[in-house]
Structure formats: structure tokens, C-alpha cells
């Protein structure tokens, strides 16, 4: 395998990281919003979120990506492969993150909530000052675990033509008629990415997190 | 829009065929992975430290590789080693190899929590070797692990969609072929998504039944 081939694999790794990062940046806050809607039993919205979560959790990323990439343009909205990829990864991970946030919220100490309420804190203040600072620490292991799953499902976006690691590897294989070396290198890159993420998870847990069971 | 769904309905036979392939790949893949995973779990629980470390290392490594990468390695990589699989077999091979690691890990996690009492009582009654595993250890593990095995089954159903990339005629591939022929993207893929949803709910219902059975046996 040539240096140029290796560099194009690294470029693919960059694309994977940028798109996964954008997906996480979309999916984690969206998941929190959905989790809050479920936790607060917001009328009308809560059942809709329940159906959304159930549906998205059983939809394969590849199918979702194809749906977004081909169906949204028929509604007259122009969408490129990159936007479709970020939407796919973000909407998919938001459903799983919703459940992580929600279980954190369900396990939140009711005593503290009552105390905050009796001090006359508004719901917004209660969330900002009391709930969130503890919640994100409790949810961190689950969220980071979901991020590694997102990276592992990110090859799905190759189906709409985004040249990320997997697609870069098959392209090199098709050019050189020797697919095994680029694929093994690509596999190695994924292993490094995920090991780094798991290491970060252990580190953040030690620094901020509560002693929680990491998956 | 209604017309689009009509087009998809006219070609429902293709979706059903794809769905059957998805189900067969999932069931055969999961059964083989469960079988081989059980053997790997025995290695993971081995009393010899080197065996334990090496098998745990391999299982952890396997769990870092994306499924599609494994499917590509099986489809494009194995021929370089002189092993030519067609796309369907390569897909099945990837499902089995990938999920063996997860199944083994699931069973190990249950096995650790299993009390020593039942195993010691069984050895006292003269159970040893394969009979100890098939009659005492694994029945307990399988019942206790049914929710996790169910989750893994849902994961496998979703992973089979990746196999459309190596042209395995499964459900997403069928939806994709209908959409590219008649350009009905929304109807075709929504139909596929709804079928996946139904399939996953079926698995969840199955897990519920098995859990009830486990409750009765306890």
C-alpha cells in the first residue's frame, strides 16, 4: 500500500470523525430535550416522543440514511450527502440518548427536587442549578458508550457516497486489485478510534463522573 | 403520495422476499453465534490465566470493529486468502463472527453472577465435563440472558441492512431496488422502516414470553 493510499485513508478517518462529531453535537442535546419531554410527561408531545424513540431505535442506520437522502429532496428541500449523514447519525443517536437521559432523570433524587421547589426555584432555575450539573455526570458513561456505537455505525453513511474510512478503503482496493491491506489498515484505524474513546470515557469518569457501571 | 404507496404495494412480493432473507440471516446468524459464543464463553471463564487473557483480548478486539468493515473483509478480503464466498455466505459469515464476540460477552456477564452453589451441587451429584455445561450451566445462563440476547437479536436485524452494500438481497436492498426503479423513495423506505419496527417489536414480545417462562421455572 502506498503512502498516498494511507493518506486517503487518514482523510477518510477525518471525515468519519467530523461527521460523527456533528452527529453527536446534534444528538446529545436533542436527546436531552426528548428525555425531558418524556420525563415531564408533556401532554401530546410525550407519546409522540415515545413512538419516535421506539421507531428510530429499530431502524437500521443504512435504511434511515437512504430514506433521508432520497426522500427529503422530493419535498423540495435540497440536501447533500453530508447533511443527510449528519441528520442520520444525529437523529438515530438522539433516540438512544433520550433513554439514557431519561433513566438519569428518573433516578434523580426526589428529595433535592422537593427542596429546590420549596425554596421557590422556577423549573428553569431548578434544571440549570440543581438537576443538570448532577445529571450529566451520571449520564456520561452511557453517553460515551453510545458515542462509540455511533462511530461503529457511521460506515452506514458510505451508502450515499460520503468517502469515509470504509469507502476510502474499498476505493483503494478497487484501484489496486488488492483489497486486503487497505481494509486491514482501515480496521486498525477504527480500533484506534474506539480505544481512544473508551480511554476518554475512563478518564472523564475518573475526573467528573460518579462511579457508574460503564458498558 | 398515495400513488407511491400503491407502487410499493404492487411490488410487495419483493419486500416480502427481502424480509425473508433478513429473517433467515438473523436467525441462522444468531443461532450459530450463540453456539460458538457459548464455547468462547467457556474459554473466557477458563481457570487458566493465559487462556482467559488471550480469549478476552480477542473478544474485546472484535467488539471494536464496525460490522460493515467485517462484512467487507469477508467479501473482498477473504478471496485474497483463496477463500471465495458469494455475497450471501459472506454476509452470514460476517454476522456470525461479529456476534460471536457479543454473545460470548453476554454469557460471561451472566455466568459471573451465577451462584457457585448450583455448580458445586451439580459436581457433587457427579455432573462433569460437557454434561455439566449442557444440563446445569447453560440452561441457567440462557434463561437469565434472554433480555440481552433479545437486544442482540434486534442489533443483528439492524446490522443485516449493512449487507445491502455488498448486494445481499435483504429488506433494505429490496426497498432500494423498488425506489431506484420507480423513484418512490419515501414510500419504499418508510415501508421498510415500518417492517423493521414490527420485526423488532416481535422480538421484544418474544423476550417478554421467555422472561415469563423463566419466572415460572424459578
TrEMBL record, chain A:
Residue ranges spanning the membrane: these are: 12-37, 49-72, 180-200
InterPro entries in the record: AA_ABC_transptr_permease_3TM, ArtM/GltK/GlnP/TcyL/YhdX-like, MetI-like, MetI-like_sf
Topology with regard to the membrane?
Multi-pass membrane protein
Q: Which UniProt keywords apply?
A: Amino-acid transport, Cell membrane, Membrane, Transmembrane, Transmembrane helix, Transport
**Where found?**
Cell inner membrane; Cell membrane
The main location is membrane
Mind telling me which PROSITE patterns this protein's record contains?
A: ABC_TM1 (PS50928)
Name the Pfam families on file. BPD_transp_1
Could you tell me which residue ranges the ABC transmembrane type-1 domain spans? 13-202
**Which protein family is named in the record?**
Belongs to the binding-protein-dependent transport system permease family. HisMQ subfamily.
NCBIfam families, per the entry: HEQRo_perm_3TM
Name of this protein: Amino acid ABC transporter permease
Question: What organism is this sequence from?
Answer: Flaviflagellibacter deserti
Q: Lineage of the native species? A: Bacteria, Pseudomonadati, Pseudomonadota, Alphaproteobacteria, Hyphomicrobiales
From TrEMBL, chain B:
State where the protein is found.
Cell inner membrane; Cell membrane
* Membrane-protein topology: Multi-pass membrane protein
**Coiled-coil segments on the chain, per record:** none
Q: Which InterPro entries match?
A: AA_ABC_transptr_permease_3TM, ArtM/GltK/GlnP/TcyL/YhdX-like, MetI-like, MetI-like_sf
What domain of life is recorded for the organism? Bacteria
Q: Which organism is it from?
A: Flaviflagellibacter deserti
Q: Where are the transmembrane segments?
A: 20-45, 57-78, 90-111, 132-150, 186-210
Q: Which PROSITE patterns match?
A: ABC_TM1
In Swiss-Prot or TrEMBL terms, this protein is called Amino acid ABC transporter permease
Which key words are in the record? Answer: Amino-acid transport, Cell membrane, Membrane, Transmembrane, Transmembrane helix, Transport
Q: Does the keyword Nucleotide-binding apply?
A: no
Family named by the database record: Belongs to the binding-protein-dependent transport system permease family. HisMQ subfamily.
Lineage of source species: Bacteria, Pseudomonadati, Pseudomonadota, Alphaproteobacteria, Hyphomicrobiales
Amino acid at each position: 500500500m502506498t503512502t498516498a493510499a494511507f493518506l486517503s485513508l487518514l482523510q477518510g478517518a477525518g471525515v468519519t470523525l467530523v461527521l460523527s462529531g456533528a452527529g453527536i453535537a446534534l444528538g446529545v442535546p436533542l436527546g436531552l430535550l426528548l428525555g425531558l419531554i418524556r420525563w415531564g410527561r408533556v401532554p401530546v408531545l410525550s407519546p409522540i416522543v415515545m413512538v419516535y424513540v421506539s421507531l428510530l431505535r429499530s431502524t437500521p442506520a443504512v435504511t434511515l440514511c437512504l430514506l433521508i437522502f432520497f426522500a427529503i429532496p422530493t419535498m423540495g428541500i435540497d440536501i447533500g450527502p453530508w447533511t443527510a449523514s449528519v441528520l442520520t447519525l444525529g437523529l438515530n443517536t438522539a433516540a438512544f440518548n433520550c433513554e439514557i437521559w431519561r433513566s438519569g432523570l428518573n433516578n434523580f433524587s426526589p428529595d433535592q427536587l422537593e427542596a429546590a421547589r420549596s425554596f421557590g426555584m422556577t423549573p428553569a432555575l431548578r434544571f440549570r442549578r440543581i438537576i443538570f450539573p448532577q445529571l450529566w455526570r451520571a449520564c456520561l458513561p452511557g453517553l460515551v458508550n453510545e458515542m462509540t456505537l455511533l462511530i461503529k455505525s457511521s460506515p452506514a453513511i458510505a451508502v450515499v457516497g460520503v468517502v469515509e474510512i470504509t469507502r476510502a478503503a474499498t476505493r483503494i482496493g478497487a484501484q489496486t486489485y488488492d483489497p486486503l491491506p487497505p481494509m486491514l489498515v482501515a480496521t486498525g484505524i477504527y480500533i484506534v478510534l474506539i480505544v481512544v474513546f473508551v480511554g476518554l470515557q475512563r478518564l472523564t469518569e475518573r475526573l467528573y463522573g460518579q462511579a457508574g457501571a460503564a458498558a | 403520495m398515495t400513488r407511491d404507496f400503491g407502487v410499493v404495494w404492487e411490488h410487495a412480493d419483493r419486500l416480502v422476499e427481502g424480509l425473508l432473507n433478513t429473517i433467515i440471516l438473523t436467525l441462522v446468524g444468531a443461532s450459530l453465534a450463540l453456539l460458538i459464543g457459548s464455547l468462547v464463553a467457556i474459554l473466557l471463564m477458563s481457570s487458566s490465566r493465559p487462556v482467559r487473557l488471550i480469549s478476552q483480548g480477542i473478544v474485546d478486539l472484535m467488539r471494536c470493529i464496525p460490522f460493515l468493515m467485517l462484512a467487507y473483509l469477508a467479501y473482498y478480503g477473504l478471496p485474497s486468502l483463496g477463500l471465495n464466498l458469494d455475497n450471501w455466505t459472506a454476509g452470514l459469515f460476517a454476522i456470525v463472527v461479529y456476534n460471536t464476540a457479543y454473545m460470548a460477552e453476554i454469557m460471561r456477564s451472566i455466568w459471573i453472577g451465577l451462584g457457585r452453589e448450583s455448580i458445586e451441587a451439580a459436581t457433587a451429584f457427579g455432573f462433569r465435563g460437557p454434561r455439566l455445561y449442557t444440563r446445569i450451566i447453560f440452561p441457567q445462563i440462557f434463561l437469565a440472558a434472554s433480555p440481552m440476547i433479545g437486544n442482540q437479536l434486534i442489533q443483528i436485524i439492524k446490522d443485516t441492512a449493512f449487507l445491502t452494500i455488498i448486494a445481499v438481497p435483504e429488506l433494505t436492498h429490496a426497498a432500494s431496488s423498488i425506489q431506484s426503479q420507480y423513484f418512490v423513495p419515501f414510500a419504499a423506505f418508510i415501508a421498510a422502516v415500518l417492517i423493521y419496527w414490527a420485526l423488532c417489536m416481535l422480538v421484544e414480545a418474544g423476550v417478554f414470553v421467555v422472561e415469563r417462562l423463566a419466572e415460572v421455572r424459578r
